[in-house]
Each structure stands twice: as C-alpha cells, then as structure tokens.
C-alpha cells in the first residue's frame, strides 16, 4: 500500500509540474510566434524561456513511471525505456544555458542553438523508435524527421533563420504547452507520454499531427532548395579583367545578347566597361546595348541613343538586368520595342556592383550617373553598331534619381556626351523623404534593407551597427541579398511583413553620418538639358507630395522643369505600356532629338 501511495503522490507531483511548465509555455510560445521581431532582447528571453519549458516538459513527460518499470500483471511487459530518456530534456536546458551565457548573443547564435538542439532531439526520437511498435514507432520517426529538418533549416538556410527561430520554434513551444495543459488536467495523461506508454498506445490523432508537421517542414525544405536553385549568378563575362585602364567609359568586353526582350528587328550586346566610384576610384560595370538592325551593317544609319537607368532590382551582383531573365522589365523598361521601332538605340547600364563585384551604391547619385554616362561612352566603342552623338537619358524610380544626377554631372564628368534631355519618371529624388515613407509601404523593410546595405557599403563613416537596430541586423543582411525578380524575395517579403518595427537603430535615422549622406544625395544641382519629371498621383512608394516639393524647390532655385502628373497611377503603372505617359514620353524625346524648344513648367 505504501508503495502504491508513493507512486500516486509522485504521479500527482509530475502532473502538477507538467501543468506549471505547460502554462508557462503558452505565453512564451505565443510571444515568439506572433511578435518575432519585437527586439533582440525579447527574442533572446523568449528563446531561453522556450528552451527551458520544452526541456522541463520533456523531463517530466518522459520520466519512466513505476508502472513502466514493473508490470508483473501485464500479459506482455512493456519495453524497457532507454537509459537516456533524460537526454532530450537536458539538451534543451543546455541550449538555454548556452544562449543565456553567450556574450552578446545574436540571432545567428539563437539559430545555431535552436538548430542543434532540434537536430539532437530528432536523432534521439529516431533512436527511440527502434524499440517502439505500430503507430508509436511511426510517430517517433515522423517527429524525429521533422525536428531534424527544422534544425537543419535553422542552421543552413539563412533566409528562414528568424522564421525558424521565432515563428516555428515559438509555435512548437505553444503547442507543447497546450498539449501539456490538457494532459495535466486530464486523467494523468501527458502531452508526451512516457517512452513505454508511447510504444504501447496507438496515438492516431498525434500521428496525424506529426504527419502534417512533417509535410509543412518538407515543403519549407523544398522551397529553400528551389529558391537557391532559382537564384541567378553572373557568369565569367562579368569578371574584372587583370589589366583595366584607369580611364572611365572604356569598353572592356562585349558579347552578343539573346533574349525574348530583344525584338526580331533589333540586335543586342552585353558590355563590360570602366567607370568611377563615388570616391573617384576606378571600377567596372556591365550593361546592355540594343539597336535597330538599321543601325548595323555596311549601310548602317546612326541611331539616336536613349540611355536607360533602371529601377530597383536589388543590391547584389545577381540582380543585374543583363543577368536576370526579362531583366529590362525587372528594371521597369517595358517599352524597349517602342524605342527601337522609332530607330533609336537603348544603352542600359546595370550599375556597378550589379553584375560586377560590389558594392552597389544604392541610391547614391554621382556613381550612378557615372555608370550611365560611361555606358554610353563604351557603347560608342562597339564595332557592330552605329550610334549618333545625340543622347537622352530616361530613368525610373532609383533610375529616375540616377537620371537627375546624370544631368547634373554630365557637363563636367562627360562633356563628350551630348545630353539633349533628362526624363525622370517617379524619381527617387529625395532619399530622406523616401526613407521616411517606407514604414507606410507593405514591404518597406525590404527597400530599407537595400538602402542600409547600399549606404553602409559605400560610405566608411556610415556603419550598419550604428544605423540598424541589433534585432534587425541579420534580417537586413538576409533581405539585402535577394533580388526583386527572384522567387526567394517572397521570403524577404514575408519577413518584411512580419517585421512590426522599423529596422533603424534610432527613432530619427536622419541624424549623424547617415542623415548627412542622405542629404548629399538629393539631386538639387543645375541641369542644363531640358528636364521632364513625371509622377503618378497614386504612387505608394515615391509619394506625389514629396515629388511636388522637390519640383517646387527646383523652380524656386531658378531651374526649368517640365512637371507632369498622372492621376490615379501607381509607381510601376506609370511606366507600363498602356500608361498615358508613354506616348507623351516618346513625343518629348523625339522633340529633344529634333531640337524643339522645351517647356518650362515653372513659368
């Protein structure tokens, strides 16, 4: 009697212990899953608490009861629990200690700790399955495989590091807590029955849940593999030659370019050429040249040139339009056919750092203008095409800002390039205003990551650790390595949507070196060539009010601007083929090539 009473008391203690730790697990798991990016400190505390409660649940639930060890009345004694039944619970507690004691833990430290303990737990589950029977054996194998795969994702696939650490791990803690509460309040059952009990009971509903969890994990793994395979990388064409001349605008390499974006009555080439960084040092950039067939061959008629500055595609080498499939459209050039049909050529820079080795100076004005002008110079060195000495630059969004800067620096930097007009279409004319509006954009954190990466990689006095808050640094680096045209950007977009706080380290990110550099890149200098600024009034990225303020400032400074607004058009819709801007832009460009007097909207 005394032994039975002691066993009942111990069972009651285990149930109450399980209830306490399970109740604690519910809010901890909910916090991790629902607010994964609150702050690095909150994430560390949440992960440590989650590891502790999971370890406690495992130790309480897996501890063999006396009935497991001594079953003299059973027709068939249950299998002996493994001697290492305590190992999974201790592994979770050890991981919690590592995270807690690690000096200056980062999200990557959390990922490694969580990943390793999930892998270890999964391996132990698989080993335990060897002595199980029926659905219990299948359940242990499924649970083990799911845990190993989740751990491997946390360790190996950086794009979902935060999702695995916070959202998926948080959901695991939350569900363990809910099952524990239900079991502790039931008839002595636990969310994770003792090892012997698991081997003896079918657990059909548990098996269904484990199958579902494995399916989700396999889907995540397949998505990761597919995304990695879909990523585009520059080939050897983009490698910097050993001997590069210091002079900018020199053609280093060219190759025929074939793409569905090149119409049958045109030819295209990739080009590699020299240009200049913001600090004046030489570098190389790549680009595309498209020309009508009438500008090629023995009877070639020189084609007037539209220099195209593309919109945002990303900030890493694989994001160059000449590397991406449908790269012109990725950079918002949807009307190359219309340009070529008029007998004009297109010279489209990739910008330095896209295609070629980085860094890419995202939304930094002068080097982007150098890239545009030097692409035109290099295109004139092609033997296979005749280009006239008349040039107009178009640019959209990021490229719109580049076009404005091209107009500013052209007279001094490239006086040999006869620039007859600048068309800035929804231009990023004020980086500070764009940054201030990004929190209102659904995936604004993605563009903020590009901006942070571009400025910290370009300017030595702008440091990522000073600009981006600790909890967002790994996220920013991960998002910055995805191109907008890649499937992998879906992960970045999901992360941006889950990111419920700005990435910036301070409420006012415009102070210090970062703010000063943003102000430096407002294109407020004189533009000698006729200037067209086009803007959609429903633009959700470059807002119309900010553009109006920029144009008003130019007019107040005595600069002529032809400012045209298009009601109801959003950022990309402004430059799509059916936009009312397109025929107006083509006519405006024809006037520039024809020498017609420009319109001064300021007057």
List key phrases describing it.
single chain, 603 residues, alpha/beta, 21 helices, elongated
Folded structure, characterized:
This protein has helices at residues 2-34, 40-62, 66-69, 87-101, 107-128, 134-156, 161-185, 195-200, 204-230, 327-330, 336-341, 365-379, 398-413, 431-437, 444-458, 464-467, 473-480, 489-498, 512-520, 544-556, 581-594, and strands at 251-256, 266-276, 282-292, 303-309, 345-349, 387-396, 419-425, 531-536, 562-566. The chain has a nine-stranded mixed sheet, with helices on both faces. The chain is α/β, with parallel strands linked by helices and 603 residues long. It is elongated, with a radius of gyration of 31 Å. The chain has 21 helices and nine strands. Helix 15 (444-458) packs across helix 17 (473-480).
Task: Map the helices and strands.
Blueprint: H1 2-34, H2 40-62, H3 66-69, H4 87-101, H5 107-128, H6 134-156, H7 161-185, H8 195-200, H9 204-230, E1 251-256, E2 266-276, E3 282-292, E4 303-309, H10 327-330, H11 336-341, E5 345-349, H12 365-379, E6 387-396, H13 398-413, E7 419-425, H14 431-437, H15 444-458, H16 464-467, H17 473-480, H18 489-498, H19 512-520, E8 531-536, H20 544-556, E9 562-566, H21 581-594
Parallel strand pairs: 4-5, 4-6, 6-7, 7-8, 8-9
Antiparallel strand pairs: 1-2, 2-3, 3-5
Helix pairs in contact: 1-2, 1-7, 2-4, 2-7, 4-5, 5-6, 5-7, 6-7, 6-9, 12-13, 15-17
């Amino acid at each position: 009697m005394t032994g039975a009473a002691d066993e009942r008391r111990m069972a009651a203690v285990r149930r109450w212990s399980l209830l306490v730790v399970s109740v604690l697990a519910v809010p901890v798991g909910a916090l991790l899953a629902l607010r994964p990016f609150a702050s690095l400190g909150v994430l560390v505390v949440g992960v440590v608490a989650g590891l502790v409660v999971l370890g406690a649940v495992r130790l309480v639930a897996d501890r063999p009861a006396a009935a497991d060890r001594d079953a003299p009345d059973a027709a068939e004694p249950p299998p002996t629990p493994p001697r290492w039944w305590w190992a999974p619970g201790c592994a979770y507690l050890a991981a919690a200690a590592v995270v807690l004691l690690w000096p200056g833990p980062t999200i990557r430290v959390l990922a490694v700790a969580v990943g390793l303990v999930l892998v270890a737990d999964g391996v132990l589950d698989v080993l335990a399955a060897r002595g199980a029977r029926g659905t219990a054996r299948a359940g242990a194998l499924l649970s083990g495989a799911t845990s190993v795969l989740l751990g491997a994702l946390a360790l190996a696939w950086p794009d979902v590091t935060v999702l695995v650490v916070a959202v998926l791990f948080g959901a695991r803690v939350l569900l363990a807590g809910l099952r524990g509460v239900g079991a502790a309040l039931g008839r002595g059952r636990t969310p994770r029955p003792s090892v012997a009990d698991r081997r003896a009971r079918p657990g059909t509903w548990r098996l269904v849940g484990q199958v579902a969890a494995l399916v989700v994990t396999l889907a995540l793994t397949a998505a990761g593999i597919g995304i990695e395979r879909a990523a585009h990388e520059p080939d050897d064409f983009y490698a910097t030659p050993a001997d590069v001349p210091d002079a900018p605008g020199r053609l280093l390499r060219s190759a025929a370019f074939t793409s569905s974006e090149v119409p049958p009555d045109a030819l295209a080439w990739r080009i590699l050429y020299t240009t200049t960084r913001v600090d004046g040092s030489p570098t190389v950039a790549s680009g595309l040249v498209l020309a009508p067939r009438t500008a090629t061959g023995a009877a070639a008629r020189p084609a007037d040139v539209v220099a195209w500055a593309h919109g945002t595609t990303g900030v890493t080498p694989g994001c160059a339009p000449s590397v991406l499939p449908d790269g012109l459209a990725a950079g918002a050039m949807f009307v190359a056919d219309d340009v070529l049909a008029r007998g004009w050529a297109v010279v489209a820079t990739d910008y330095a750092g896209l295609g070629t080795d980085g860094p890419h100076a995202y939304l930094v004005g002068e080097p982007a203008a150098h890239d545009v002008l030097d692409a035109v110079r290099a295109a004139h060195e092609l033997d296979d095409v005749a280009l006239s000495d008349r040039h107009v630059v178009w640019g959209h969004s990021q490229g719109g800002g580049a076009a404005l800067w091209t107009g500013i620096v052209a007279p001094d930097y490239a006086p040999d390039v006869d620039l007859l007009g600048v068309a800035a279409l929804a231009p990023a004319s004020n980086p500070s205003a764009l940054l201030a509006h990004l929190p209102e954009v659904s995936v604004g954190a993605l563009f903020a990551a590009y901006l942070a990466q571009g400025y910290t990689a370009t300017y030595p006095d702008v440091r990522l650790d000073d600009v981006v808050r600790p909890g967002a640094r790994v996220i920013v680096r991960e998002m910055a390595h995805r191109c907008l045209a890649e499937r992998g950007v879906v992960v970045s977009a999901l992360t941006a949507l889950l990111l419920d706080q700005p990435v910036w380290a301070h409420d006012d990110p415009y102070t210090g070196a970062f703010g000063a550099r943003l102000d430096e890149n407002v294109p407020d200098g004189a533009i000698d060539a006729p200037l067209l600024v086009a803007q959609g009034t429903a633009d959700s990225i470059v807002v119309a009010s900010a553009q109006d303020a920029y144009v008003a400032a130019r007019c107040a400074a005595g600069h002529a601007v032809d400012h045209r607004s298009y009601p109801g058009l959003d950022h990309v819709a402004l430059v799509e083929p059916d936009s009312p801007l397109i025929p107006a832009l083509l006519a405006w460009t024809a006037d520039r090539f024809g020498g017609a007097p420009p319109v001064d909207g300021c007057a």
